[in-house]
Amino acid sequence: MSLIKTYQKLLKNHFMVVQAVQTGLLMGVGDVVAQTLVEGKNLKKYQPVRTAKFMLLGTVFVGPSLSLWYRTLARKFGTQSSSITTLKKVACDQLIFAPSFLVVFVTNLNLMNGKSFSHIKKELEANYTDIVVANWKLWPAVQLVNFYLVPLNYQVLLVQGVAIVWNTYLSWKTHTSHEDIEIE
């Protein structure tokens, strides 16, 4: 059986598990890229635990959240590829889901790193606007293509493929910003 057919069968029989695992793996790739190419860490300075945390967050939170969200959008607006349906989905995704999702994502990542709620609040105050604006520079165009052309079962995969770049940015932004935040 070909790799594509195996993937399709697994997706059909274990939809949420496949979405969660592929998201965790691709988020791990984003963190590796952030550490090695963006931050310039060599093998001695590379932090595998950081990558593992990013992968865990992708597996237990990001993948399932996106899967459920895209299914919710499909139930609410349908699955037809029309301009109006696509624009409604993108508007909901970018004006409702993305801003709240990013708060929860940054909070969860910081909690996994042992940060206090006062630290998380200060980090959100310092970086949230930058992250949301960066989100709006990338994701509306991606989601237009995603919601218009891609079948529901493959939407998370497309997003996570593009998200290797986004996850690299999020990993870099959420890990380098810690030095700039002073906690009283």
From TrEMBL:
GO cellular component, one term: mitochondrion
Keywords, alphabetical: Membrane, Transmembrane, Transmembrane helix
Subcellular location: Membrane
GO biological process: regulation of mitochondrial DNA metabolic process
InterPro entries: Mpv17_PMP22 (IPR007248)
Annotated GO MF terms: channel activity
Topological relation to the membrane, as annotated: Multi-pass membrane protein
Pfam families reported for this sequence: Mpv17_PMP22
UniProt KW Transmembrane keyword: yes
Residue ranges crossing the lipid bilayer per the database entry: 54-74, 94-112
Protein family: Belongs to the peroxisomal membrane protein PXMP2/4 family.
Protein name, entry field: Mitochondrial inner membrane protein Mpv17
